[in-house]
Design goal:
mainly beta; elongated; 3 helices; five-stranded antiparallel β-sheet; Immunoglobulin-like; 11% helix; three-stranded antiparallel β-sheet
């Protein structure tokens, strides 16, 4: 019987009643309900803080910011890049980190180098405009004392050193 059934040509056309063929569905109620739902707006731009004293070492930096509104925020997007007059592509690359808190410690930075930071807030509705950009600077590397050039006498000493930093250092403090 199965063999006979499979040999038959079947008419799969469904017949519908005339009432359903030209029916127009009205979605106005659904549209009104959808529009009445309160959606969360995208957050406002965060405000990045200026660099705090002692917030940097030669290779790391702590960056802080705030959100001065009652916006719902799921996370923040912190972006940074080194500030340079030269156009080296790998050194000019922008880095992006996702952060849950309103602060972040960035590591693996170059000593005595300026970095530009900006931050955006994210939630389910989207991303905020970026904050103003802030420039932070890492601490310089400690200098290398040239032991072979040290000279001293009864009332004086001559100590020579050289900087390991690419960028010039403003000043040195010598402690005895």
């Amino acid at each position: 019987r199965l063999e006979e059934f499979l040999k038959k040509e079947l008419d799969l056309e469904l017949s519908t009643l005339p009432d359903f063929e030209e029916r127009v569905i009205d979605f106005s109620e659904v549209e009104q309900l959808m529009n009445s739902i309160n959606t969360i707006p995208a957050p406002c731009a965060p405000v990045i803080n200026p660099q705090a004293p002692n917030a940097a070492t030669g290779t790391s930096m702590r960056v802080c910011w705030g959100l001065f509104s009652d916006d719902t925020v799921e996370c923040y997007q912190l972006c940074y890049k080194p500030v340079s007059n030269e156009r080296r592509s790998e050194e000019q690359a922008e880095h992006t980190l996702k952060v849950k808190e309103t602060y972040c410690t960035i590591t693996n930075l170059l000593p005595n180098t300026q970095y530009e930071f900006w931050v955006s807030a994210l939630n389910a509705s989207g991303i905020s405009p970026p904050s103003e950009r802030a420039v932070y600077v890492t601490a310089p590397s400690p200098p290398i004392i040239k032991n072979k050039k040290i000279r001293s006498c009864e009332n004086a000493a001559l100590v020579c050193w050289e900087s390991r930093d690419i960028n010039p250092v403003d000043s040195y403090m010598v402690e005895l």
